């Protein structure tokens, strides 16, 4: 599936900003070693102009997408933050270019920040670590790639753990559904049993009542028979 044009344009702009940072770094190195960076200065100035134009195009395209409801407000806010980061990076590149190589450590720190500035930390104001101080640009870039690979491996492990936890959650949910069905069946069975007990109890009470009535009738009949026998029995 093809990526959205705006995101492709954004990645291209980030790549251009990184290329400018690398060119400024090389320009400063040539100045320190007595080289002639005039050609690089022209290239950097042209690239900075292109960077400004591309950022402006990203802003205009974002406004059109939002006004025509092609993206949600949440996505628009996210993209606006990306554009703001690019604007900050462009201003930092302009400042570094005008410094004319007077702050080499700041430039090298910016190269260590990666292609995209997504955090609140200003990479141009970072102090270079002892691990990278004696490295050239290609060694720094190789170290970046190694760090990214390690981060990718960590993310893959995290994805695996999350997938396993998700499966466990689904299994627990299925087990709870089965237990709820069993409980429903037991509740229905208890209700039926209770109804039968109540019905049988009513029948037993009715039988007891009938039995009591029959016993009284038998006693009355026996008394009548006794009276008749006494009445008709000859006296001596």
TrEMBL record:
Residues 41-68 form a coiled coil. InterPro entries: Syntaxin (IPR045242), Syntaxin-8_SNARE (IPR041875), T_SNARE_dom (IPR000727). It is a single-pass type IV membrane protein. GO terms for cellular component: late endosome; SNARE complex. Residues 98-118 are annotated as: Disordered. The chain crosses the membrane at residues 212-233. One of its GO terms (biological process) is vesicle docking. PROSITE patterns: T_SNARE. It comes from the Eukaryota. Keywords: Coiled coil, Membrane, Phosphoprotein, Transmembrane, Transmembrane helix, Transport, Ubl conjugation. It is found in: Membrane. Residues 145-207 form the T-SNARE coiled-coil homology domain. The keyword Transmembrane applies. Vesicle trafficking protein that functions in the early secretory pathway, possibly by mediating retrograde transport from cis-Golgi membranes to the ER. This is Syntaxin-8. It comes from Chiloscyllium punctatum.
């Amino acid at each position: 599936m093809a990526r959205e044009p705006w995101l492709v344009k954004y990645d291209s702009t980030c790549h251009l900003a990184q290329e400018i940072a690398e060119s400024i770094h090389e320009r400063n190195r040539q100045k320190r070693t007595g080289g002639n960076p005039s050609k690089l200065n022209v290239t950097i100035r042209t690239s900075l102009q292109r960077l400004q134009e591309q950022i402006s195009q990203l802003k205009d395209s974002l406004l059109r997408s939002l006004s025509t409801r092609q993206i949600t407000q949440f996505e628009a806010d996210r993209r606006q933050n990306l554009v703001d980061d690019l604007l900050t990076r462009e201003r930092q590149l302009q400042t570094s270019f005008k410094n004319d190589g007077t702050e080499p450590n700041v430039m090298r720190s910016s190269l260590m920040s990666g292609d995209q500035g997504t955090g609140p930390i200003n990479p141009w104001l970072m102090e270079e670590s002892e691990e990278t101080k004696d490295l050239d640009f290609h060694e720094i870039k190789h170290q970046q790639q190694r760090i990214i690979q390690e981060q990718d491996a960590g993310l893959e492990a995290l994805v695996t753990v999350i997938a396993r936890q998700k499966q466990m959650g689904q299994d627990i949910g299925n087990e709870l559904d089965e237990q709820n069905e069993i409980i429903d069946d037991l509740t229905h069975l208890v209700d039926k049993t209770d109804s039968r007990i109540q019905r049988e109890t009513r029948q037993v009470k009715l039988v007891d009542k009938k039995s009591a009535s029959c016993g009284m009738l038998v006693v009355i009949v026996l008394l009548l028979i006794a009276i008749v026998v006494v009445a008709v029995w000859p006296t001596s």
